[in-house]
TrEMBL record:
Pfam families: YkoP
Highest classification ranks of the organism: Bacteria, Bacillati, Bacillota, Bacilli, Bacillales
Protein's recorded name: YkoP-like domain-containing protein
Domain YkoP-like: 4-183
Naturally occurring in which organism (per UniProt): Brevibacillus choshinensis
InterPro entries: YkoP-like_dom
Lineage top rank: taxon: Bacteria
Amino acid sequence: MNSSLLVLWGLWDDVYQRCTRLKYIEKGANIFRVVPLRYRGETLVTSDNQTIFNGDLIVKIHIHNYYFATLCKGVKDDLRVALLLRRQIMVSLPKLAAYLESMPERERIKGIVGTTMLHKGVQPLGFSISDVPMNWFFRYKRWYLRLLLRIVHPDGKKRVQTWNHEMPLKRVYMSKEALLKRYGTMHASTGEVD
C-alpha cells in the first residue's frame, strides 16, 4: 500500500473513530472495534444452538481495517495476508471475551455479530455464517468493503474482480456462551484445548 495513502487513511480513521460509538478493545493491539447495540435482522441460530432475535442486545464487531492495513504494509503474498488476518483474529478473540465479561450489560448480551466479505475459515473459530439481505445498507457496505479490499490487498484490483461472486457479504456471529467458553477466562484457567 502507498505510504501517503496510508497516512491519509489514518487521519480519516481518527475522524471516523471520533464520530462513531465504536470502542477499541485494545488500541494498536486488537483487530476488533465494538459497539453494543440492538440486533436488527432475521433470527440467528448459533453453532451451539443459542438464538439471537431481532431486538436482542449484541456486541457488534468491526474489523479495524486501518490497523490491519498497517500490519499488511509490504506484504505481497495472498497467503501471508490471509494467515496474518487469521492470526490477528485468534489473538484478538480472548481480549474480546475479556472485554465482554467486563461490560456492565454483559448479562443481557446475547452474542457477537459482524458483517464481512472475509468469512472463509471463520467457522473453526466458533463463528456461524448467514447471508445478509441485499438492501441499500448492505449494498453500500459491500461497495465500501470492496473498496477497502482494493486498497489493503497487495493485488486488490485483481482480487475484487476475481472475488466478485466468490466473496459475497455475509453475517458472522457467535453466542456469548460460545465466546466465553472458547476464549474467556474460564477457558484460560482450565487450560482447555479445542
